[in-house]
Amino acid sequence: MTITLRQGSTVMFTGDSITDCRRLESEDGLGFGYPLRVAGEWGFRHPDRPVTWLNTGIAGDKVMDLEARWHKDVLDARPDVVSILAGGNDMGWHTYDPDGYVIPAEDYAAGYDRLLAPLAEAGTELILIEPFLLPRGRVEVGDAHVGEEERKEWRADLDPKIQVVRALAREYGAHLLAADGMFAELAATTGPEHWAADGVHPTPAGHAALAAAWLRLVA
């Protein structure tokens, strides 16, 4: 089953830097990543069904940060569809931020659940995008220097959080975009740097892949 976007529907993307993608610098507020690509492709395919597209992603946000601004930035807009990509900053936070600490999968799950509950109660359609990590060599991710050992630690931290997103998608009847598996499959033939130069933030091709997968969930 796909989500039917009707004329006049409001779709909101939210999450961290991958969704934000410099949205405040963009003319339409959608940024320069997959939300813009989704909106553009939808408008091309369905000029007879205009949709309002919103983006409230903020770079650096973890689930707890989303929760702190959820009412103002998401619920008050009363969107018909909400698409969430969150978890990249929850992953390995203790390894790159002096004030960071380990965020257990249980805490991540509880916070994420509190994001979804009021949306489900309002009848909002949900798209949950898995956080993902591609196997790059030693690179800089933001201000963090990430080598093989850090990436192994990040992966060990991320895997249970991916399982959380999958479980919540089942619990809430949300549509799941299995991004981690998608990028692993794509990277197997081209190399991971084609899709995310630092293993976390998508390249233009990576954003195009996310947009194409997202559009397969709607009709």
Q: Which strand order spans the largest sheet, edge to edge or round the barrel?
A: 2-1-3-4-7
Report how far the terminal alpha carbons are from each other. Answer: 9 Å
Helix-residue proportion: 40-55%
SSE sequence, one letter per element = EHHEHEHHEEEHEHH
Low-confidence stretches: none
**In terms of structural class, how would the helical and strand content be classed?**
alpha/beta
Number of H- or I-type helical stretches: 8
Task: Tell me the number of strands.
Answer: 7
Please describe the biggest sheet, giving its number of strands, its sense, and whether it closes into a barrel.
5 strands, parallel
Mean pLDDT across all amino acids: 95
- Percent of residues in beta strands? 5-15%
Radius of gyration over C-alpha positions, nearest whole angstrom: 17 Å
Shape: globular
